[in-house]
Amino acid sequence: MTAEEVGGGAAGARRRMSAVTIDNIIFSVSSLVVFIWSAHVLEPVDFGRFALVLLVFVFVQGSLVRSLVSWTVMVHPEDADTRPRAVLGSALLLALGAGALCLAAGGLLLLGDSGLGASLLVVGALMPLLAVQEVGRFLSFAQAKPSRAIVIDVMWLLLTVVALVLIPLVHEMTLLWMVLAWGGTGALAGAWVFVQQGVPRGHDISLTWLKERWNFSWRSLVAASSSATVALIGAGLVAVVSGPLAVAAVRAALLLERPSTTIQMAVATSAGADIARERSDNAGLLAHQRRAMLVSLVVAGLNFGVLFLIPDALGELVLGDVWHLVTPLLLIIGLRVVAMAAQSGVRAALMGRRQISQVMKIDIVGTVLSIVGFVIGAYLGDAEGAYWGSLVGLTLTVAGWWWALVAHLRSGEGFADPEPAAPASDPADRPVS
Q1: Residue 21 pLDDT greater than 50, yes or no
Q2: N or C: which end of the chain has fewer CB within 10 A?
Q3: Whole-model pTM above 0.70?
Q4: DSSP code for 328
């Protein structure tokens, strides 16, 4: 490879990282707009129900579709180039199953006269297109065309804002209408993925592609489920040993980490996609990882500083009375975002090399360390203790990620490719230009 090609590659990587970062910011802003808007327009009980609806969505998209399909195709860019319809078909079938479970649960709750029933029915019906929206973003990353993902997420954001403005003009904003405003616009944005990638045909809507990549995807599912386990079990145990106020403070603290973690996720995703697509050697891998870490450290430093400059009036505007619970945690929050930035891109680099067994093991160990730290800390010192405990667990996990990366680089294993090669594709399978 010539020096000119290397330079062009580096410049292209920086452009893609910028585009992926912009897309993740837009995606995060869209979620925050809906969450904050719902907190202001819904009754407290309906706001709680809406939070449950979002939790169902996040679980399906994050722990199921993203781990099994999105990350798998991102580290197999050849599939994104040659078989995008087969990838979308597997995602559709998974989402149809998850949607059917939501429809069944919603129907039962509706029979029991629960206020959550109708909303779950809507989410179940829209789940396939919401899954397509999610997978469409990662197909774009894998194809090194992140501008397509930006189009999808800008469309969802703009349609959501329009819906939230127009609905109150014709109808009172209820829980059901809120779900329709959020989920319906997401489904419309998901439909645009078919314009970009093509519509799956009958034989594409199967689990064939997923079965071919199962060696990677099931481990990805286990790894992704670890973070969801931390959120679910950790919050429950903190509530038991310390009380609901500690849980509220911890959840609010996680929101203050969001600016930094959004950027970290974006640059790590970009690095992982580039490593997988370029099949980078060790020097190339470290170049992508260092670029991701540098950006993350700068953003983490800014996040750290801003935390101490937020006036109480602004904090109360965003978090209400919970702001006063979270102010004692500002130093720990800042240290956590710096700790996370210090290993940014390491996990993604290992994913890009398809070292999924190592990733899965460290995610599981990190889950245990985080839960233990949360619970012991909460027992000793409520919310502040829980967060200090989580920082200890996080620091140990960061050390584990670096150990795994160094061990991999020294092993000389190179690019793991245990899965069978993708079969030759029909030209009709290629994405629409």
Answers
A1: yes
A2: C
A3: yes
A4: G
